[in-house]
Structures are given as structure tokens and as C-alpha cells.
Amino acid sequence: MPANLTTHLPILQVQNKANTTPYTSSQPEAAGQTFLTGVPVQLNGSGYVQQWDGTTVSAGILGVAESFGLNLAAVGTGAPVPPFGGVTGTIAIQTYGSVVNQPLGVNIAIGTPVSDGRTLYMEPNQDNIFQALFDNATGSVSADYTPVQASIGLTYGLTKDANGYWYVDKSKTGGSAVVQIIALPLGSYVNAPVNFVFLTAAIQVA
Amino acid sequence: MPQVRAKFPQLMQPGLRKIYFDSLDSQLKASDYPKVFHEVDSDSEYEQELEMAGVSILQEKPENASTAYTEMKQGASKRVEPLTYSLGIRTSKELYDDDKYGLVGKKGPTMLARSAAFTKEMIAWNVFNQGFTSAVTTFDGNPLFYNQHALLGGAYATQIAPGAAGVISAPGTYPNRPPVDVDFSVAGLQLATNHASRMIDNMGFPIRLRWVNLITPPELRFLVREILGSSGKPYTADNTINSLLPEDYKNIEVPWLNNPSAWFLVAEKQDHALEVINREAPSTDFDDDFDTDAIKQKTRMRVAAWCPRWQGVWGTQGP
Q1: Which of its termini does chain A have fewer beta carbons within 10 Å around, N or C?
Q2: What is the 8-class DSSP label of residue A61?
């Protein structure tokens, strides 16, 4: 049986245990990434940000993306080079058509979102509390999709739905778990949101 | 990492005759970038600009023939995004109070202002430092200093441009950098001067440009004096005038250039597009930490620099 919902919601950072602004960071993005905001991301073998593969549980999650995948033609295209470099390239996620007699010139539609070659993400440290919908990739009855008071403290995995959003998956436990539920902010009901922290073992960059 | 007394024991008692302090003894002097760059304010995440080309030359119309019609050309668009730069200092209340010289805590804003000034200067001059690479490009997508900038008018533009054949290395292009980089020299300056005199717009019309500022690193100081300071033709025994003197180039020597042999020429401000974009002027803020009483001082600014058009600037990396 599939998950109860066909589409879920972006993972949100909702609270911080230190009652401060959550730590946000950014790194150059890998090529061809088309992920949505609010999804788990990881550094690939070359050190560039890509969407989490869903299977690397140990030290696999870099954070939760606060920007969408830029679909870069090459890794880190446009990312500023410290200490004094600015954003390079078109600084836009898309261009159209061509420019007469200037093969390297581009047309940028007015209002096209900015691309700076980097993924902005919220670090999954233990102070940051995130929220996502609860579901079950192999559920069949309401109870399978419903977080209850006894769910608090339990550890689960994350699964991506067909629309690109991730949910806390009751069917993934044990060695597949990457988060621990710490609260049911809106109570117990089918597909209710749950607050969670990432497990220390799942954090890629401490 | 906060500043605490254990890191500054020399400041805990009076007795030091003099303290040499970076921010007090070695000020940055005057800022250089405003001498060359336009300074523009912005109120947006990014600024976007567009290049347009006009029309070409009139065509001879035989008797009673129809008028030929043409159209202008929309060129490429280009963006610049100001980035945020920030830095802070944390000082323990005890160090702030016990520092007998009032330096570590109280001079924080001065040091941060100095840091902001240096950072902004380098962001601006990075347009020159990186201008030979894809990090700094113009509307045509090529590096700012390039020997084959593509013209919107294409080969037709260089076909009609008077004298262009002697300057260009490919039809439909125009250089603002020699095909082979040249030393700062009489011949190099003459070449650059000729490039300006023959410089054309996107449709091949001469724009009659004149260089005003010669921008050089400190390493070229003496060469500049020899070449532009000599009343006679430099490095010859001939009784010939120094033909470069009437050009009246004003040398701006700046320490912000990385390459000791690169040199540049820039036209009057109205004829070039070198810009520093100020999204947020440098500002300083303070706060106390309630729990530790530590004093926090920080400075932040949002700024960028670019040059979307290549006309009006010229550069070479030297040897």
C-alpha cells in the first residue's frame, strides 16, 4: 500500500531549543538539482549539495533546504568566490532565446528568480526542531498514518513522495531511522504534523 | 570567540609609552574606487540592465525608389546581485572596563569601519583584478577585458567601421585588450590609444572615445614617470617630442591591483559603466549580552561591483 497522502508539505524549521535564530548555512550546489524547498539535502562525494538520496542513514543529511534546486549546468555555477568575488554568470535560474550576433549573451526575463549557485540550508543540529507530515509508505489503515502520544521519542525514517516532498515515514524504523519525534504540535490525527530532531548519527556535518 | 582579559594582559595596567595600533597608525587614507567607479544606490535584491543597439547607416535611395526600413536591436540582459558582508567583535564586560588604554573594546567600531572600507575597496577593484576571466563578464558574455567583444551588429558593424580592419582580429568584434598582452610601454600605450580612437558602438559607429585615467599598480610607478614624464620621446636619443603627452593621461596608482604588471585605461565616467552598487551602506550596531554582559559590536553592508559594458575601459595583463 502507498502512503495515505499523494503529496506532503515542505519540512519546516519551527523551533530552536536555544531560543535563538537557527543556524543557516550555504554551499555550492551540484549540477542538475531540481529539488524543492524544505527537503533534506546532503553533500555528494565531491562536496556539492544534492538532494538526500534517502538511503545514506549514517552521516547522510547536511540539512533542510531553504532554497530550491537551481538545475545548474555545472557544479556551483555562479557561486561567489571568497573573499571578494561576487555572484557570477547570469544570476538567473533561466534565460530564453538568443541574442543576435552574441552567442554568449543571454536574455533574462524580468522577475526571473536569482541563482547564485549555492543551496541555502538549515543545519540539522540538535537545537533545531523541524516539522513534517506523518505518513506510512506501507500503511493500510488509519492507525498506520496517525502519530499518537506513544510516538514521541520514537525514531523513524524520511521518505520522498511522488511530488518531491518528504514525510516522516512510520514504516522506516531501526537502521533506516534518521529523525526522532519530540512533539505532536497539533495533536493526534491522520497525517498530523510531527515535530522532530535529526538523529546525531544522521547528521553529515556536525 | 570573545575577547577576554587573559588575551590582553598588557592592557590591564598603565605604563606603556605607546601602542602601535593598526587602525590608528595606518589608516586607509582616501578611498580610491570613487575616482573611477560610478556609485549607485539600489533598493532591490538585484539590478538588471539591458543593452540596445541603434540602427545602421542610411542607404542611398534611387529616384522614386521606396525607403528601406530597418529596426533597432535588443541585446543581452545582465544582472548584478549585492552580497552581504558582515563582521563582529565580542568583548567581555570585564575587559571592556579594565582596559586602561580604552583600546580593545572602545576602538572596535573604528577597526570594523576600517575593515568595511578595505573590503569595499577590494570588491570594487576586483572588477579589474578578475576582469580577464569569466568571473567578470559584460553583456556579450565575454570577460570585461577581451580582444574579441561580439558586436550586436555583427560583421556588418566592423565592415562599415572606418579603420576597424586595422584593429580587430575577427569580423564582428572589437577589442579592449590586445590579442597578446603587452608591457606598460610606449608602444603599449600607443596601441591602447589607437583602440580608443577607433572604438565603435554595436553598429560600427565610431564613438570617439578618449582615455582619461591610466590605472596602474605600484610596481609600474617608475615606468609611468619615465614614459609620461619625459618631454622627449622616451628611451631614445632623438630630438623628438613625447607624443603621448598631449593625451594628458592622469595616472591613478592603486594598491588594490593584484597583478604587478597589469595596467588599464578608463574613459570619463560618462563613457564607461564601472559601477559600485550600494544596497546598504556600511553601518555599525551594538548590543549587550544579557547573561554574560559581553559587548557585541558589528558592521554590515550590502554591496557589489560590476561593469556590464566593455566600451570605455581597456586592460592588459602585461607580460
Answers
A1: C
A2: B
pLDDT in tens, A21-47: 888 999 999 999 999 999 999 999 999
**In A, which residues are within 8 Å of B142 by CB distance?**
104
Return the number of CB contacts < 8 Å for A and B.
Answer: 86
Q: Is A82 part of the contact surface with chain B (CB cutoff 8 Å)?
A: no
Which is nearest to B278 in space by CA: B91, B41, B84, B17?
B41
CB B56 within 8 A of CB B203: yes
* SS3 (DSSP) at A202: helix
Give ipTM to 2 decimals: 0.85
Written as nine digits, the cell of B153 is 551588429
Average pLDDT over residues A96-100: 96
Closest CA to A118 of A29, A25, A23: A29
C-alpha B208/C-alpha B283 separation (Å) is: 42
Q: CA of A19, closest CA in chain B: separation in Å?
A: 14
CA distance B55 to B315: 29
Alpha-carbon distance B129 to B122, whole Å?
Answer: 9
Please provide the DSSP assignment of B184-241 as one string: SSHHHHHHHHHHHHT-B-TTS-B----EEEEEE-GGGHHHHHHHHH-SBPTT--S--B
Q: Which three cell numbers stand for residue B20?
A: 602601535
| pTM across the whole model | 0.91
Question: Using a CB-CB distance cutoff of 8 angstroms, which residues of chain A are in contact with residue B139?
Answer: 102, 105
Gap between the Cα atoms of B35 and B121, Å rounded: 11
Q: Is the distance from CB of A95 to CB of A106 less than 8 angstroms? A: yes
Contact assessment for residue A195 and residue A15, using Cβ atoms and an 8 Å cutoff:
yes
Closest CA to B267 of B179, B195, B182, B162: B195
What does DSSP assign to residue B32?
Answer: S
Tell me which residue in B46, B75, B140 faces A114 most closely, judged by beta carbons.
B46
Residue B105, pLDDT above cutoff 80? no
- Where is B250: in which H helix or E strand? strand B250-253
Angle at B236 between CA B232 and CA B239, to 5 degrees: 50
Q: Can you tell me which residue has the cell 560618462?
A: B270
**Residues of chain A with C-beta less than 8 angstroms from the C-beta of B74:** 99
Question: Under a CB-based contact definition with an 8 Å cutoff, are residues A54 and A60 in contact?
Answer: no
C-alpha to C-alpha distance for A84 and A117, rounded to whole angstroms: 16
CB A134 within 8 A of CB A167: yes
Separation in Å, CA of A108 to nearest CA in chain B: 6
